[in-house]
Prior knowledge:
This protein is an alpha+beta fold.
Amino acid sequence: MTSRVPGDWCRWIPDQITAEDYTALPEDFCRTIEVIDGHIVKCESPSRVHNRVGRRLAATLEQARKPEPCLLVETDIDVRISDVPLNLRRPDVTVFRPLPGDRRLYAGDAVIVVEIVSPESSFRTDTVDKKAAYAAAGIPVYLIVFLDQAGDEVVLIEEHRLIDERYDLVCGHTKRLSLDDPISVEVSFEALTSP
């Protein structure tokens, strides 16, 4: 938390925040929200399986990277779509080009974003709203991971690729994820979810 943030910081949050307002918010709070057109959207806490799938998929992508081009992999990190109005999302997994110094991660730096759809998450948000936002921002690959109704197993991973400024579904992976570009990776769904 920066020194300019008052102790009762939650009382001064306006209906619509700016990029400057966002940087003044406590980090712990920022990890629990996304910002759409300057409006704060509270994110629900994901399940253990949701977190496990995200963590294992990130580790798999990270291990499969090649030295060139250099790519980084993070979970639950801000991806800035625009500064005015402020739009930022926190994909479950993000693969991006290295950034100099402390520069913010913008959508133009990302090459893959992953969202995990589970029973406690918003199906429409991940399959419609975020899909449109990520496509408009020019992120080349969007993976949507679907968990079963019980939230225990991965049943499908949709691979969307940016073609003519919109996403086309190029593959519906069942049983295992197999990617060639920008990272070549093979991982079974069981490996993503098994305890």
